[in-house]
């Protein structure tokens, strides 16, 4: 994006990368969608902690996906998924929304976790 006489690029006059200016109300009647509730800026330590938490969350999500892939590829490789918590995928895209799919999933999760949690008869 280049600057013109009517529009000066926000980075041209000492802008900060990642900090976007508000639109002038005479041009757009939209609120500031980057920070719509006007939350205060966090300090550096809180930002660093939030970044670490988000990175760790992503790492755990990747480990979880690898667990599902391992369970699908090698039978009984993931003991907690041994009782078919998730049914085998046969190409039916609407299977999760089918008849009694949620009830079957809840029953399968309960049966699979009985070894780890106290189960009531």
TrEMBL record:
The keyword Plastid applies. It is found in: Plastid, Chloroplast. Gene3D superfamilies: Chlorophyll a/b binding protein domain. InterPro entries: Chloroa_b-bind (IPR022796). Pfam families: Chloroa_b-bind. Its main location: plastid. It comes from the Eukaryota. The keyword Transmembrane helix does not apply. Belongs to the fucoxanthin chlorophyll protein family. This is Chlorophyll a-b binding protein, chloroplastic. It comes from Thalassionema nitzschioides.
């Amino acid at each position: 994006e280049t600057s013109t006489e009517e529009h000066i690029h926000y980075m041209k006059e000492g802008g900060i990368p990642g900090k976007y200016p508000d639109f002038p109300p005479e041009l757009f009647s939209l609120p500031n969608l980057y920070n719509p509730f006007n939350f205060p800026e966090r300090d550096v330590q809180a930002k660093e902690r939030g970044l670490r938490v988000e990175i760790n969350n992503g790492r755990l999500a990747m480990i979880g996906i690898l667990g599902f892939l391992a369970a699908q590829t090698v039978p009984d490789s993931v003991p907690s998924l041994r009782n078919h918590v998730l049914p085998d995928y046969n190409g039916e895209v609407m299977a999760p929304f089918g008849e009694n799919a949620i009830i079957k999933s809840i029953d399968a999760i309960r049966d699979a976790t009985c070894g780890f949690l106290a189960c009531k008869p």
